[in-house]
Automatic annotation (TrEMBL):
Any Pfam family: LeuA_dimer
Name of protein: 2-isopropylmalate synthase
HAMAP family for this protein: LeuA_type2
Alphabetical list of InterPro entries matching this protein: 2-isopropylmalate_synth_dimer (IPR013709), AIPM/Hcit_synth_CS (IPR002034), Aldolase_TIM (IPR013785), IPM_Synthase (IPR005668), LeuA-like_post-cat (IPR054692), LeuA_allosteric_dom_sf (IPR036230), LeuA_N_DRE-TIM (IPR039371), PYR_CT (IPR000891)
Protein source organism: Alkalimarinus alittae
EC number: 2.3.3.13
Catalytic reactions on record: 3-methyl-2-oxobutanoate + acetyl-CoA + H2O = (2S)-2-isopropylmalate + CoA + H(+)
Quaternary state and interactors: Homodimer.
Cofactor dependency: Mg(2+)
Pathway: Amino-acid biosynthesis; L-leucine biosynthesis; L-leucine from 3-methyl-2-oxobutanoate: step 1/4
Amino acid sequence: MSGFNHKKYRPVAPVQMANRTWPDQVITQAPSWCSVDLRDGNQALIEPMSVSQKQMLFALLVKVGFKEIEVGFPAASQPDFDFVRWLIEENQVPDDVTLQVLTQARPELIERTFESLKGARRAVVHVYNSTSTVQREQVFKLDRQGIVNIAVNGASKVKALAEQNPETEWVYQYSPESFTGTELDFAVEVVDAVTAVWQPTPENPAIINLPATVEMATPNVFADQIEWFCNHVQRRDAIIVSVHTHNDRGCGVAAAELAVMAGAQRVEGTMLGNGERTGNMDIVTMAMNLYSQGIDPALYLADMDEIVRVVKACTQLPVHPRHPYAGELVYTAFSGSHQDAIKKCLALYKPEQPWQVAYLPIDPTDLGRSYQEVIRVNSQSGKGGIAYTLEQQYGVQLPRWLQIAFSTVVQRQAEVNGGEVSPESMWQLFNEVYIDHQAPVRLGAFELKRTTHDHVDAQLIAGDQTIDVSGDGHGVMDAFARALQSRYGYKISIQEYSEHAMQEGSDADAISYLQVIIEGQTFYGVAIHEDIVTASLNAILSATNQYMLEKQQAVA
Ligand SMILES: CC(=O)SCCNC(=O)CCNC(=O)[C@H](O)C(C)(C)COP(=O)(O)OP(=O)(O)OC[C@H]1O[C@@H](n2cnc3c(N)ncnc32)[C@H](O)[C@@H]1OP(=O)(O)O
Ligand SMILES: CC(C)C(=O)C(=O)O
């Protein structure tokens, strides 16, 4: 028992449809988009946007490529009215962009709306009234015919004013607001009554916008509603079916996607989903979902950080770090197995091939994000992520045996500090643990002789003392290890060795990695030098110095 009184709520009745076709449809092209950021988004803000914020957001929407932008509810407030006037009078609307404005189906508001649009080249006048059962009964206290009358009167007023202002190319839009709470046959009845007034044609279509003003059911129910509506509405070829979903159940994007499969041609929404209550349908997410399926989203979203910056500045709302596609953490893997898989896939990825990288549905660089942000290290990370970070940032390609050893060191550090280990602190740790061991002895001059075997004569510097050592072996490393052994008496057995150039070109530094066993204990040494032999000898010294220091400390 949850303790909730779930009997308080009634489920939405499913649509009775024996032959629904939308589940078999595949989206192959982007719908027409309409941004309602400046209207539905704005009306949901604690503090509505200032004129300069509206101007900034409008500029972004144009840059992103919207061809229809609902810029406000000009009859509602002077700032909205003034903004529309500014756009028109200051010639701010590109030729391929159409302004859209919203009005209730009330004559005085429609008049004011047309006033605001004087001189517009082209405009969508969007008129709405609520049609849902609950609004009919409790808000408007009208029967079905009364609601149809509001819609028809509003549509007639719009048509009359449009005809009086022929210098503008008018597009009519009607929304049966609260469509998802409206009986489907009644939604069709109202819309048919409106289009009977407007008489749209295939050449001059009207937009019929079906809003999930409140998202009330699973997205498949919305898709059924859209398909049912499309099958029953009159003048289907003369109307553009648009949807406008909200996100009350967290499925605003899914509902719009299924609605497109069910016949919707146009989608209204906002950038990153600001809007009433839980928000409007997020166009960025829906467009990027299309993109990730190989479909041109018909919007330019490549500069995602700029989009996030402007939307945040205009709405004064944060963007969740895990917001689909746009959040700062969505291309970041902390967990070890994810990092390992990403690292392996990225290493195999070739730009001419289709994108196929585990855990990354799209290439972060498409949105201006860098691969450096993809893998970040904390206590949940593994060797793959650590190795990836060091390679990306510092050009070191740790051999597998050192990845294993170093990941334990990093893990310990992450557990102690309790947070993320930055690339800088990881590199510092790597240096401290494997490279920076210059005492008790460091390498001075040395000479190699190669005959049937290798011979090394080297000077070791210990404080102000110089110690000569020499040894023979199979290879320089072996010879040097034997030289140290004969001088200090402990046995050095080389277990693993690896080296590579750190940058391209002949003047590149080389790095040597070494694993040795000294008196039964494992040590790792790493050294970087322009000369590969020097790097290798220093790597041995780095390991042996660790052993000698430990021994000295044990004695002390
Ligand atoms: C789902 C949506 O997002 S719809 C858009 C909602 N957005 C907004 O409302 C923001 C802007 N709106 C406003 O600023 C105000 O509502 C205004 C200025 C437009 C109108 O203000 P007012 O007339 O003072 O008040 P209000 O909006 O409460 O009007 C309600 C009246 O209009 C009627 N009404 C409400 N919506 C509509 C409509 N779409 N068509 C016709 N009449 C309507 C109501 O029945 C009510 O009538 P009553 O006064 O006889 O009871
Ligand atoms: C006016 C309509 C389209 C609306 O904003 C809604 O229903 O959410």
